[in-house]
TrEMBL record:
Residues 250-269 bind DNA. Residues 227-287 form the HTH tetR-type domain. The keyword Transcription regulation applies. Keywords: DNA-binding, Repressor, Transcription, Transcription regulation. This is TetR family transcriptional regulator. The keyword Repressor applies.
Length: 414
């Protein structure tokens, strides 16, 4: 039986090869002026007024000038969900709806055009970046809502890249076969994969519990010139928390930023909470020390309370990234890892700085309330810490003033 191709098969094969190598600018040039002016609702004369000259007369004008202008200003017609300059944030289902409602088709065509034309690449790059940021923001929001850390060897950036590619692929599939994947189903799929990818207690347990307990020795010798490695780790952690937030940072990230192996880092600090405690303890001890001095000098309770609250607000403001981590650990990890909460409360008992002052005021009759000093101190400390963390633009003295005005109005003797 003959295997020789027929002329028809040869012609079809040649056409397919040419289609695969087709320059997208050729397709753009196939647009007719009549179709363009009809779509724009303008006249042929207007077109030639805007793009004077004639390509047929070997002038750089007319349709050739229009095509070049079109490719240089090609757009996906994509608008970021928030104001210009703001961090984009959008629900995952909404983003996917945008993709399958025509954005994915424009993204694919734009990508093909950009592969052949430098001007198109430059024009489309900001829109491609904005789409990626919007999708990554939606993924990061879901990570933050879960708490915990991304399981190693993945990083948050790796995970976002994978999910953006997954969304593109699913949108492409839905574009080809409508009804294959709904936006709600995509949201469920992402949640399911995140459940697998996130370790809720930040333990980085991807090598097994036994290896975590009996960590192998480090293969890299420590630099003998590093005299205070703990301070290096604390500084690196604070920088990472400030840039990425408590939940998005893992021990592996901190180890890398500190130029340590994960094994050596865990010898110094078994968890992120241990780093927070080490960083904040000296600053908190100062608050306690100055409070004890006020007590020995018998400073009036209202004055002493005002001074101590100001010191607490200053303590949080000067250590905002670590204080935010402390607050998040207390808020979210009490259900996943109660020992974390115990560690913080034992080493950083913030209300304890206020208890002696409130007790003194109650004994003197300055504070007329039957509530326990510890309960009042806890309420006051929580308000100071939360406001200091969430109102970064407010100076410490303003935070203290606002909180005390409300608090003292409820407990001062009339």
């Amino acid at each position: 039986m003959s295997t020789k191709s027929t002329p028809r098969e040869q012609l079809l094969g040649a056409g397919l090869r040419l289609l695969a190598d087709l320059d997208m600018s050729v397709l753009a040039k196939s647009l007719s002026i009549a179709a363009i002016v009809d779509e724009a609702g303008l006249s042929h004369q207007t077109f030639h007024n805007v793009y004077p000259g004639s390509s047929r007369a070997e002038e750089r004008g007319g349709k050739e000038a229009f095509v070049e202008d079109l490719l240089t200003h090609v757009s996906l017609q994509y608008s970021p969900p928030d104001e210009p300059g703001a961090q984009p944030s959008v629900e995952l289902a909404v983003y996917f709806e945008h993709l399958i409602s025509g954005l994915m088709r424009r993204r694919m065509i734009g990508g093909m055009i950009a592969s052949d034309h430098a001007g198109a690449r430059s024009s489309l790059a900001p829109e491609f970046d904005a789409m990626d940021r919007a999708a990554e923001s939606a993924i990061r929001n879901r990570l933050r809502a879960r708490g915990g850390s991304v399981k190693r060897p993945l990083t948050v950036t790796d995970l976002c890249t994978v999910f953006v590619a997954l969304l593109d692929g699913l949108a492409f599939r839905e574009t080809l076969s409508p009804g294959t994947m709904s936006a709600a189903r995509v949201s469920e799929v992402v949640d399911s994969l995140l459940d697998w990818a996130v370790d809720p207690v930040h333990s980085d347990r991807w090598q097994g519990a036994a290896q975590q307990v009996d960590a192998p020795p480090s293969l890299e010798p420590l630099d003998p010139s590093r005299v205070d490695i703990e301070s290096d780790v604390i500084a690196a952690t604070e920088a990472l928390f400030s840039e990425h937030g408590y939940f998005s940072v893992t021990l592996a990230d901190i180890a890398s930023a500190s130029s340590l192996s994960v094994t050596d880092l865990k010898r110094l600090f078994p968890s992120k909470v241990d780093i927070i405690v080490a960083a904040l303890t000296p600053e908190f001890e100062r608050v306690l020390r100055l409070g004890r001095a006020d007590a020995r000098l018998e400073v009036e309770p209202v004055v002493a309370l005002t001074r101590t609250v100001n010191r607490l607000a200053e303590f949080v403001a000067n250590n905002r990234a670590m204080s935010s981590g402390m607050l998040l650990a207390l808020s979210f990890e009490q259900f996943h890892e109660p020992g974390t909460v115990t560690t913080i409360r034992e080493h950083l008992p913030v209300p304890s700085a206020l208890v002696p002052v409130i007790e003194s005021g109650q004994r003197r009759g300055d504070f007329a309330t039957d509530a326990s000093a510890l309960e009042l101190a806890t309420i006051l400390a929580n308000n100071v810490v939360i406001r200091s963390v969430t109102r970064s633009a407010e100076p410490p003295e303003e935070v203290a003033d606002v909180v005390l005005r409300v608090f003292l109005s409820g407990i001062l003797s009339r």
